[in-house]
Specification:
The protein is of the alpha+beta class. The protein is built from eleven helices and six strands. Helices cover about 65% and strands about 10% of the residues. Bound molecules: adenosine-5'-triphosphate and magnesium ion.
Length: about 400
């Protein structure tokens, strides 16, 4: 919601008026592309039934999005608020028809079209009239007293169209939550299957072998004590192997090092296992909730494993900090770059895990490196415990 700024010093107010005057000039200049985009979309939409309109829409829609976004940013700056989210992104490589369908389904498309109409009529008139007044002689006074109310008025008009309404925001949130809930259910089912498989192939198989060895030993005791002793020996080895397997399964569910040493300590332990120097820096004045901690741990573990497997890096680093209610972890390496979450299952899996907590994972990995993976999860930290620490190996 727009917030009226607190009274400011005269120089700051003059700067703000100058900035708004600049916006007015830009808005007048953007009249032409906005008009063009509106005409292309309107004519393209009308002709789309006879295919002829599709190329017009293919040019008009991106142009409309571009000019609408410029106005969205200017309006938010005039009102001193955050730029509201724009239309949903269309996946890269989506064919034209698919893009058109996505555009048609996004309420923002219709909002932007309505905005374009308002912008080329009322909006343009307001900005132009303001500029003319400013350039005329009444200037000083009009500019001094008029800039802020006029430009804020125009900004509110723009955002009335260019920001999603409450119902649309709630609808989007419900859609996101439905998707992440489905992912969480899938993930939980997959985890259960993995644990079941690990137990079946590991500990269970060894316990079966153990039971057979002991059975044979029992039979052999009377006739061949030597063989019986060897069988009992085998059974002991199998028991240790079964225990190791069970420990590994437990570690995969919730690593004990995480419970004991917290995220920073556990990541330091992971870093020590890598065959290259990894600098770990953490500034976490408390612990995140256990499920978030665990999700972040496995995500960082996957990133570090990827560095070991794919990057060919000489150095890597992990930074963790908590700021403005967001726990952020950055995992970087100076290797070959070219990481692509779509090319495997590891990164996509951890992305889904994070999404369950409204977390995000962004990968910046140009060819030639470096690779920077940024993980962000909104969460509060519990009781202050860990002081800022830094370790490198
Ligand atoms: N740090 C990195 N540096 C360079 N390339 C990377 C890096 N991390 C990932 N990649 C590339 O991105 C791809 C996707 O990684 P992802 O973790 O999703 O799959 P994976 O590691 O190949 O398989 P897995 O499913 O076992 O994790 C990798 O195949 C690799 O080519
Ligand atoms: Mg991987």
């Amino acid at each position: 919601m727009p917030v009226e700024p607190a009274p400011r010093a005269p120089t700051a107010r003059s700067a703000s008026r100058l900035r708004m005057t600049g916006y007015a000039a830009l808005q007048v200049l953007l009249f032409v592309p906005t008009l063009l985009a509106f005409v292309l979309c309107a004519v393209g939409g009308a002709l789309s039934l006879v295919v002829l309109g599709l190329p017009l829409l293919a040019i008009g829609m991106p142009l409309l999005r571009w000019t609408a976004q410029r106005h969205r940013v200017m309006a938010a700056r005039c009102l001193g608020i955050e730029v509201p989210p724009g239309p949903r992104r269309t996946p890269p490589g989506e064919p034209l028809y698919g893009r058109l369908m996505l555009w048609a389904r996004d309420p923002m498309t219709w909002r932007e079209l309505a905005w374009a109409l308002a912008s080329i009529t009322i909006g343009f008139t307001v900005s132009l009239a303001f500029l003319v007044l400013f350039l005329g002689i009444v200037t000083g006074l009009v500019w001094w007293y008029g800039t802020e109310p006029i430009m804020r008025g125009r900004a509110r008009l723009d955002l009335m169209f260019l920001a999603y309404g409450r119902t649309e925001r709630l609808e989007q949130r419900v859609a996101e939550l439905t998707e992440t809930r489905a992912d969480v259910v899938d993930h939980a089912a997959a985890e259960l299957r993995r644990i079941e498989r690990d137990l079946h192939d590991g500990a269970q198989a060894r316990l079966v072998a153990l039971s057979m060895s002991l059975g044979l030993a029992e039979e052999a005791f009377a006739t061949d004590p030597e063989r019986a002793r060897a069988l009992v020996n085998d059974a002991r080895t199998t028991t240790s192997a079964a225990l190791t397997d069970l420990r590994n399964v437990v570690r995969g569910i919730h690593p004990p090092v995480l419970a004991d040493r917290g995220l920073a300590g556990a990541v330091q332990a992971l870093a020590l296992d890598l065959p290259l120097p990894v600098e770990v820096e953490a500034s976490l004045p408390g612990r995140p909730p256990a499920p978030v901690e665990s999700a972040l741990y496995f995500t960082i573990a996957e990133c570090l494993a990827n560095i070991g497997k794919h990057s060919g890096a000489g150095n890597a680093w992990v930074l963790m900090r908590h700021r403005d209610g967001i726990l952020q972890a950055i995992v970087g390496d100076d290797g070959a770059g070219g990481a692509d979450p779509g090319a495997g299952t590891g990164m996509l899996g951890v992305m889904r895990r994070l999404a369950a907590f409204d977390g995000t994972m962004t990968v910046a990995s140009p060819v030639g490196g470096p690779t920077i993976v940024t993980l962000e999860v909104p969460c509060a930290l519990s009781s202050p415990k860990t002081a800022p620490s830094s370790v490198s190996d």
